[in-house]
Amino acid sequence: MIDLLIEKIEEKQNPTVVGLDPNLAFIPTIIKEEAYERYGKTIQGAAEAFYLFNTKIMDGIKDLVPAVKPQIAMYEQWGTFGMDVYLRTIAYAKAKGFIVIGDIKRGDIASTATAYSNGHIGQVTIEEEKFSVYKEDFITINPYMGYDSVEPYLEDCKNYDKGLFVLVKTSNPYSGQLQDVDLVEGGKLYEKVGALVSEWGEPFIGKYRYSSIGAVVGATYPEQGRKLREQLPHTFFLVPGYGAQGATAKDLAGCFDKEGRGAIVNSSRGIIAAYSRPKYKEQFKEEEFVQAARTAVLDMKKDLEEVLA
Amino acid sequence: MIDLLIEKIEEKQNPTVVGLDPNLAFIPTIIKEEAYERYGKTIQGAAEAFYLFNTKIMDGIKDLVPAVKPQIAMYEQWGTFGMDVYLRTIAYAKAKGFIVIGDIKRGDIASTATAYSNGHIGQVTIEEEKFSVYKEDFITINPYMGYDSVEPYLEDCKNYDKGLFVLVKTSNPYSGQLQDVDLVEGGKLYEKVGALVSEWGEPFIGKYRYSSIGAVVGATYPEQGRKLREQLPHTFFLVPGYGAQGATAKDLAGCFDKEGRGAIVNSSRGIIAAYSRPKYKEQFKEEEFVQAARTAVLDMKKDLEEVLA
Fold first, then answer.
1. Among A81, A251, B118, B259, which residue has the fewest nearby CB atoms (within 10 Å)?
2. pTM of this prediction?
3. How many CB pairs below 8 Å do chains A and B form together?
């Protein structure tokens, strides 16, 4: 699966993934009104507003961006209506040619991990018949419980040609509270996790020397990103933290290799809520949120190109 | 919320939570046939088989057990049908007087953690109107991303009188891979996490000297359980690993305090699939799965009583 992601990135000449993390606070009124008119100011109405918003955003950027990353929490909060929109968002994204990274950050063991994995990237079995449910191409997972919480996903990655991004060094302010602790055996916890991810990923290395088992490495920690890039030459990075969380293109340059490969950079609100950002507010009205998103994608592309040149 | 859990445990004289982790492999044929007849051998049929099974199990043990713990992965794998059954299982459990611990092990930051928290234990807001969605009493969460991935839940615990169990030392074979690493600052990673959980929980200490912010501590690691019990006198433990995962009552005795309080022990398949276990196979037919579950609950209760006396 990593080969396909790398090829899509090259095709679009853009190592960007757009995070589909909608929030009612920035969904344009015109979208909300349409959804509320049909389904009321209800949970269903809110969920449908997300779907309408996502499809319009995706239509507007599909020629520019190789991948989207729906954040499942934003949908899960609306119960079954939200999960239905999560599923339909994935289906729509795939129909439009995007690679889909499901940002689910699941972490559990044995039969539980198997259930998550079968549902999201594998297949569930009902009386010998198999069904694909969520159909993401990649998902994010949490490593705190150790190898047996990862193994079922590796199995499905092999059987269904899928990929993972395992949390290694996250972009949030307190990520160091546990991830940066110094270990008696040497190095920091996130480095140990990085080494494990690399080891787990060895059987999944594709034709561009990167593995389908990747790592989440936050753009907000440039030094750690650079070090991890050196230590993990075959591990592809999903890099959050650019834009809204404060990291610049220069901060994340170290996550890429010398050929300008090896990472895909996420921006969520920075793109999908661009119309409301100070930078674009003058230029675009609320109804022009798609054009604003498109402009933000192009600006981000240029920004990344400058440091990766 | 912890006070209520402790009072329910005393009322039933039974520190047991029954894990509702159904699996088609052990749902009795009579239940599956009923669900398939109505909804086909489909995802919906499978999800409805889970619901039928859960309600029968809950009806059969409601006088014996203070709490149930649905494992969301088992439902999430079936997409929206599964999530609907997860929601209805919670509603049914609460109507029958159980405390509900949602085993969701979520872990994410900022607006994402807020979405999970609002959906599961708080309220979501749609144009100033508030809605409760999942309505668990407690949920489990993953600490790997640090304090800012926990803070939104603490806020909702305060506002809605709910509780958490944070993963500290899990019961699985590889839990030590990261959790047991020795830290330069002293102690092991899980001990550091335990200390943080205790610190986060201080404002939530109730009338029985335990906090609504608890910890997951696996029964399969008796030495660590005993040590954590000493180090964290105000942290209530959710203890998985008894029975199917191999831990005995003696192994987990150290998770309790001298008054026999401070922990609740989970058993999932050991109870809900009791009819299929060697121990009960002779005594119960498949259709008698509820009586088998009831007997398994009573046997577990006796087993715990013996070591806690």
1. B259
2. 0.98
3. 218
